[in-house]
Design goal:
Length: 268
C-alpha cells in the first residue's frame, strides 16, 4: 500500500531515497529475490510518473535489495495460474512500465547487483545505462518455463546487442556472467559489488553537473532517433540542437567556457 509522507513516498515492495537529486529506487522483495509481481510493477510505475515531473530528482538509479539478486524475473508464483487474457494484461503492465523508464525525462541507471533474469533483465534493458557488480548474472530463461519474454526482452535485447547474440540468449535461456555481458555490450561497466552503488552515484553526479536541458534532449534524441530512419533522425537532432539555443543553459554553458569558470546551469 502506498502512503505519502511529506515529499517521501512509501511503498510495500520498494525503497525510494532521494539524496543530492539522485533517487535510488531499490526493489525490495528479498524473499522472492525481488521478483516483479503486479504490485511491484504498479509501485515502480508510480515512482517513474512522479520522477518525470519532479524537479528535485535529476537522475534515477534502480537496484535490488540484498547481495544476491537485482530482480530474478517476473513473479512465477503470481504468473503460474494466469489465463491468457490476464497474462496479456500483466505483459501490458510490464511494457508500460519499461516504456515509462525508457522515455523518462531523467536518465535512469540500472545498478545490477546479482541475478538479472527474465523480467529483471528486461528492466535493466529499459534503463539508459547498466552497471553490473562482478557477481551479476543475466539471462532470458523464459523458454525454460514454456513462455517468451513479456516485458520487451525480444525487442530491446536484439536492439542492444544485435539479432544473432540476442536470439542465442533467448533461444537457449543461457545465463551469462557480468564479464560476458560486458563483452557483448549488454552492460557499460563491471565493478566489485561493494563499489556498485558508489559507481552509479558517481556517474549520476557527473551527469547532474552537465546542462540539465541538454541532458534531457540527448536522451530524447538518442531514444526517439533510434526509432526513425537516419535522415529523419538527423533532422530531429537538428531541431533539438536549435532548441538548445533557446535555453538559458546554452547561454551559461558557452559563456562559462569563455570566462574560464564552472557553469552554473539552471535547467532552462
Ligand atoms: N518468481 C517468484 N519467486 C522466485 C523467483 C521468481 N522469478 N525467483 C526466485 N524466487 C524465489 C524462489 O521460489 C525461492 O522462494 P522459496 O524460498 O519460497 O522457495 C526464493 O526466491 C529463493 O530462490 P531459490 O531458492 O531458487 O534460490 P537459488 O539460489 O537456488 O536460485 C535463481 C536462484 C537461479 C535465481 C532461481 O531462483 C531461479 O531460477 N529463479 C527463476 C528465474 C526465472 O526463471 N525468471 C524468469 C521468470 S519469467 C519472466 O520473467 C517472464 C517475463 O519476461 C515477463
Amino acid at each position: 500500500m502506498i502512503t505519502v509522507k511529506g515529499d517521501e513516498m512509501e511503498f510495500e515492495n520498494l525503497k525510494v531515497e532521494t539524496t543530492n537529486r539522485i533517487a535510488v529506487v531499490t526493489i525490495n522483495r528479498p524473499e522472492a529475490l525481488n521478483a516483479l509481481n503486479e504490485q511491484t510493477l504498479s509501485e515502480l510505475q508510480t515512482v517513474f510518473t512522479d520522477v518525470n515531473n519532479n524537479d528535485g530528482v535529476r537522475v534515477v538509479i534502480v537496484t535490488g535489495s540484498g547481495k544476491k539478486a537485482f530482480v530474478a524475473g517476473a513473479d512465477i508464483v503470481a504468473m503460474q495460474q494466469l489465463s491468457a487474457l490476464d497474462a496479456r494484461r500483466f505483459s501490458k503492465l510490464g511494457h508500460e512500465l519499461m516504456r515509462s523508464i525508457e522515455t523518462c525525462s531523467k536518465p535512469v541507471i540500472a545498478a545490477v547487483n546479482g541475478f538479472s533474469l527474465g523480467g529483471g533483465c528486461e528492466l535493466a534493458l529499459s534503463c539508459d545505462v547498466r552497471i553490473a557488480s562482478e557477481n551479476a548474472r543475466f539471462s532470458q530463461p523464459e523458454v525454460s518455463l514454456g513462455v517468451i519474454p513479456g516485458f520487451g526482452g525480444t525487442q530491446r535485447l536484439a536492439r542492444l546487442i544485435g539479432k544473432g547474440r540476442a536470439l542465442e540468449l533467448l533461444l537457449t535461456g543461457d545465463m551469462i556472467d557480468a564479464d560476458e555481458a560486458y563483452r557483448i555490450g549488454m552492460v557499460n561497466k563491471v565493478v566489485p559489488q561493494e563499489e556498485l552503488l558508489e559507481t552509479a552515484k558517481s556517474m549520476a553526479t557527473k551527469i547532474i553537473g552537465k546542462g540539465p536541458f541538454a541532458v534531457k534532449l540527448v536522451k530524447e534524441a538518442v531514444c526517439t532517433g533510434l526509432e526513425m530512419d537516419l535522415d529523419r533522425a538527423n533532422q530531429y537532432e537538428t531541431e533539438l540542437f536549435g532548441l538548445c539555443f533557446a535555453s538559458l543553459d546554452q547561454k551559461e554553458g558557452m559563456l562559462s567556457f569563455l570566462e574560464k569558470r564552472p557553469a552554473n546551469f539552471v535547467g532552462q
